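Figure 2 data, in text form.
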Amino acid sequence: MIRTQIVFALLIAMISPAWADGKADLARGVSAEIAQNYDLALQYYDSAIKSAELPLHSQAIAIYNRGNVYFKIDREEKAIKDYTRAIRLKPGFAEAYSNRALVYSKRGLRELAIEDLTKAIEIDQTDALAYVNRGNAYEALLQHEQALEDWHQAYELGHRPHWLVARLRDERGS
């Protein structure tokens, strides 16, 4: 996720000097977030979002990044609002759906998490982590077959943490 943020910020910073302040603030926000200086990251993201120079897709990225910071500092309600706003600005934003689902899961709202992860998977069928997270949400709801289907798909896509390999091996053995 951090690598994606860096790439987005660098691309934005190189596009056009007309958006210099907003782009620079977005890039500074990413740098502050990577350094785990979350207060400073929030300041830069707020400034980038308020910048009239940023195009909508860049605003969506800044809002999404701010949502990530809010999630990291346990301000879940604000994270949900930012992910929702980013999705409105950029409807195909699979990562925003996935991250909003993580907040929903953390709050025990598994059905909402499954809805968002399903949407993220519709947008990007190669996102193995979305399958893992949806499988985890299904498992929490005691929907074992659906969980296993998603975990198998994640495995096929190359996501193979030890716990998943062991779980799938155990299921084959039963």
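Caption note: The radius of gyration is 18 Å.
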